[in-house]
Amino acid sequence: MSILVELQSRFRAALAGLVDDPSEFLKLVQPAADAQFGDYQANLAMPLGKRLGKPPREMAQQVLQRLDVADLCKQPESAGPGFINLQLRDDWLGNHLQTLLGDGRLGAASATVARRFVIDYSAPNIAKPMHVGHVRSTVIGAALDRTLRFLGHRVISDNHIGDWGMQFGMILYGYKHLRNEAAYEQNPVAELSRLYRLVNLLVGYHEDMAALPELKSRLERQEQVVAEMVAQPPPTEKAALKQAAKALGRAEDQIDQLRKLLSSTHERIARIEGDPGVEHLARAHPDIRSAVLAETAKLHAGDAENRRIWRNVLPACRDEIDRIYRRLQVTFDYTLGESFYEDKLAGVVEDLERRGIARPSNGATCVFIEGHETPFLIRKQDGAFLYATTDLATIQYRMQTWQPDAILYVVDHRQSLHFEQLFATARQWGYRDVELQHVSFGTVLGDDGRPFKTRSGDTVGLESLLDEAVSRALAVVSASDEKKPGRDAAREDNRGQIAEAVGIGAIKYADLSQNRTSDYIFSYDKMLAMNGNTATYMQYAYARVRSIFAKGNVDLAAIRQDAVPISLAHSAERSLAVAIAQFPEALGLVVADYRPNHLTSYLFELANRYSTFFENCPVLKAETHALRASRLKLCDLTARVLKLGLELLGIRVVEKM
RNA sequence: GCUCCCGUAGCUCAAUCGGAUAGAGCAUCUGCCUUCUAAGCAGAAUGUUGCAGGUUCGAGUCCUGCCGGGGGUACCA
C-alpha cells in the first residue's frame, strides 16, 4: 500500500462536492518538501481557492473540515498561504510496518491494470565492439524491464541488434578485400572490428575529400557576403543599425562554423594522409563508399556469397556481446535483430505505397509527414531498405505477435527525429491504440563536452571499463580487509565475488542515478566511485544490517512474527520508518515517466537514514528486549527494501563487505 | 535556413506535470573507530538557477527576447 495513494483517496473524498474533477488537485498531495512541514503536504488549497473564488486559507480550512485522516495522521495543520501539512501517527506507522514485515512485496501492490510492454533496449551494432555508449540503453532498459515486471505488468524484452545495415556492408567489403587471414583465424571478432573501423575510416576519408570543394566554395561565398555587408554604408536609423549589426554577427558566425568544419575535415584528411599505410589503402580503394553500399544491397538481395559470409561471421559476434550481457546479468526474452525482418521489408514498402501513405520521390520511396521538412525515407534509390523500413516492419511484427499496450524504445535522444517520424508513420498505418514511447537518454560526453571518444578516436570499450571497475573494487575490498584483521578466513575467497558485485554495481548506478534525459560527462573516477551516492553505499548499508543479524544470531522468521510493537520514539527510528513505508511511491515514480533515477534517489535516502539510525540506535545492545526486537524489525525491513530496490535496478547485494 | 535539447555551488549532477528557506555527491575545512563494518557518522563553508522582461498568491520550472553550448536535419544507424 502506498501512503500517498491512500492520502490522495482521502482527499478525493474530501473534495467531492467541491469540484467536479478533483484529479488535477490530487496530484498536489505530495511527500513533504521539508521535514519541518511533516511527512506529507497538500498544496491544493491555493489553486482550489482560485477556481472557487475564495481565499486560499479559508479554502484550506474548508478542506480540513471535510478531510478524514484521523486514523493515519495527527491533526493536520494549515500553514503559509494555504499549505496543508500532514504528519503520520506513530502508532499507525508502527502498525503499517508490522504488516510490511509479512509482505514479500514490501507494500508495493501489483498493478490493478496489468499492461503489456515491449521494451526495446541495448540494441548494439554487432559489427563493432560494445562501448560506453551502450551502457545507458542496456542498464536503463534492464531496470525498467525489471521494475515493470515486478509491478505486475507483462513485459517482453527484445534486443533489436544491428546485424543487417550498411555497417555489415563495411564488414563484407573489409572481409573480402582487406582481411588478414591469420588474425581472423586467431580472433575473428577482433579482426572484424578492425576491418569495420578501417573501412569506416576509408569511407569517411573519401566522403571528406568529396565534400571539400563544396565546403570551400561555401566559405568563399559567405566571406564575400560579409565583405559586402561591411562595405554597405551604415544605416542612419537606430533600429536599422541594430538590425544590420545583428545580421552581420550572424553571417560572421556562419563563417566561423564553416571554418571549423573545414579545419576538422582537413584534420581528418591529414591524419589519413599522414599514415602511409592507410593512405595507400585510401588510394587503392577510391570507390569504397559505393562498393560498400553495393555489398549491402547484394546482401539484402540474397547474394549467395554475401549471405554465406554473413552467416559465418555472425555467431562469433553474438558470442562477444553475450559475454558482456552475462557479466552485466542482463537477459532478453527475444533477440530479433534487423535481419529477422529482411523478408518483410519489401511488403512494408508495398503496403505503405498501396495505401497512399508512401510515394516515390527522386527515385526513393518516402513518407511525407505534416510538420516535417524532410520526408521519412523507407527505400533508397538503389532499392536498399533503411532502418526506418526495418523499424516499421518491427512495429508490425510486434503488434501482430504480442499485441502490446506500449512499446518502449530506450535509445539515445539524438534519434528523436527518427522516432517522431516513425511513430507518425505507424499511426497513419493504423497503429493508433498503442503507446509508442521513445525513452530517450542523453549522450555520454568526454571532458571536452563532445560525444565521448578516446584520443585515438575509438570509444572506450565496455569490457575494459567493467574490468577496471572490478579491479578497483577488489583493491578497496582488500584494503578494507587489511584494516580490520581478525575477519573470518573464508572471506578471502569471496573477495572476487564482492568486487564483481561492487564494481559492476558502481557502473550501473552511475548511469541510473542520473536523470536519463541529461547528457553527462564521462569520468572514470565518477563511474567507478565507491563513496557517497553510489551503489556501494547501499550495498554497504545492506551488509551492515546483515552483519548485525549474523553477530546476534538473529532468527528473522521469529522477529517478523513477534508481536512486540515497533517503537519510533527516537527521531532516527521514525525517519527510517517513514522512508521504508515510501518504497511503493518510489516505484510509482519510476514507471510514471520511465525514470529509474527516482529509485536511486529513494534508495540513497533510505540508506542514508539507516546510517544515521545505525550510529544512534544500538540494536543488539538496546536497553530492553522489546526495543531490540523493534529495531531488528526496522533493520530487517531496511535490508529487504535495499535488496529488492537494488535488484530492480539490476544491482546485486553482498552479505559482507 | 528549419528544428529539438541544454545553461543550477569550484567540479559532476538532483529538484515528483508551478509550491514554503534550490538540494546531493566529489573536492575543502572541523570533530568521531577499546561499544552492532569508518566503503561510515556529525558539523562548517559554498548560489543573482546564463541575462532582461512578462504571467501569479508563488517561477530553476511556464511565455517573449537576448547571450552561450550541443544535437538533428533525403537515401548511415
What global shape is seen?
globular
Number of strands: 13
From the 3D structure, determine the CATH topology of the domain at 462-648.
Isoleucyl-tRNA Synthetase, Domain 1
Strand order in the sheet with the most strands: 1-2-4-3
Any descriptors?
657 residues; alpha/beta; Gyrase A, domain 2; Isoleucyl-tRNA Synthetase, Domain 1; four-stranded parallel sheet; RNA-binding
Task: Provide a brief overview of the structure.
The chain is 59% helix and 8% strand.
Structural summary, described in words:
With 657 residues, the chain is of the alpha/beta class. Among the domains are: 3-88, Gyrase A, domain 2; 168-301; 462-648, Isoleucyl-tRNA Synthetase, Domain 1 (Orthogonal Bundle). It contains 25 helices and 13 strands. It has a four-stranded antiparallel beta sheet with strand order 1-2-4-3, with helices on one face. The chain has a four-stranded parallel beta sheet with strand order 6-5-10-11, sandwiched between helices. Helix 5 packs across helix 22, helix 20 runs antiparallel to helix 25 and helix 23 (583-593) runs antiparallel to helix 24 (597-616). The radius of gyration is 30 Å and the shape is globular. The two termini are 33 Å apart. The model has no long low-confidence stretch (mean pLDDT 90). It binds one RNA strand of 77 nucleotides through helix 3, strand 8, strand 9, helix 16 and helix 17.
